[in-house]
Model the fold of this input.
Amino acid sequence: MKELVMGFLGCGNVGGGVWKLLQGYADELDCRQHLTIRVKKVLVRSLNKQRSCDVPREILTDNPDDVLLDPEITLVAEFMGGEHPATEYMLKALENGKTVVTANKVALALNWHLLQAAAEKSGVGLYYEASVGGAIPIIGALTQSLQANRISSIMGIINGTTNYILSRMTENGEDYQAVLADAQKLGLAEPDPTSDVEGMDAAYKLSIMASLAFHTRVTYDKVYREGITKVTAADIAWGRKMGYVVKLLAVAKQEGNKVEVRVHPAFLPKEHPLAGVNGSFNAVYLYGHACKEMMLQGRGAGDMPTASAIVGDILQAVKAEGHYPYPTFANTAEPDPATVFDDNWTAKYFVRLSAADGTDALSYVAACFAKAHIAIEGMTQETAHGQAQMMLVTGEAKEQAVQSALSSLDPSLCTVENLIRIEA
Ligand code: HSE
Done:
């Protein structure tokens, strides 16, 4: 019988889930894998806090070195979240010859190069399946099962909070602020929701997925980012009339050495496989030259779904027996200079504008778009209380051309209320 002695960094929701999963799975591990997992030390902020899991009081510590420097501990699982001090603790664990399993997308996306260098130097493993998409095995798919593919496109719904908010706005016609407040009350959105609703969380995850899919480091700062705070019930209603559903999409595309990476609200045709992914579910839809279209869907957060990915990684690490896999690309602080990040992508655009009634703003806007050689596929107007609401959908156009056409509009004649890209 093999024994793994491990330590936890953190014991909140996710750490508690891992503890519960390990306890409930122990007998099966014993007989199926001939493996016993012993959690020797658990780093916590407060020794006296009430916990939902039954971790024995005597293995709790508030001294990180009890985990990071204990020679008997060979694997450290990190669930603290945030960049600091999680990065420093993980580096110390790796430098001290311990394999690290982490759920921390922020620390990984920002400091992956440092963590990987430390892991390689010590000849230990660095595992991070839980950092993207919770229980969905997207990291394993990209690094193992789909290795034979040249992946050219990834579209993901990889933030459960925003998918829950947008789904409810779509189903009930509710306003963003009302749904957010309710989601916070239900514990489905953080008290400070900025990282989720402004798209940072999805951008960290996209930078990790795109790096693995395209075999080149895609740093977080290269991801174009727009959150969901400007999406209104009116946008959603217009979209529905045209057969579209709005999602916060993480999009990554590669063609030759050109890479585009962006997170923003997007309309999808209601028949698209991602359009039916609702509530707090996550999904990744990708295209590989051999596998063709593929979608992986599942729970992107929560104690047990996240624990599923973490315990899976722990078992992979045990099986690796010292032969740890590292990503194939040069993992450096800056992207490879040969990779060109393209921020002038092609899409269709939905634009909502308002103007005073009777100003013939519709013809004025149409003329501005025609001047910029942007085709308009549909245009419509509704008038109420002396205000005209206009909606237009462009044909395929370049991002910069659309932005420049919109900024050329005279604000005394019409106001741009929102722009939502349309993906297919
Ligand atoms: N805040 C994240 C989400 C949690 O809403 O998806 C999982 O990373």
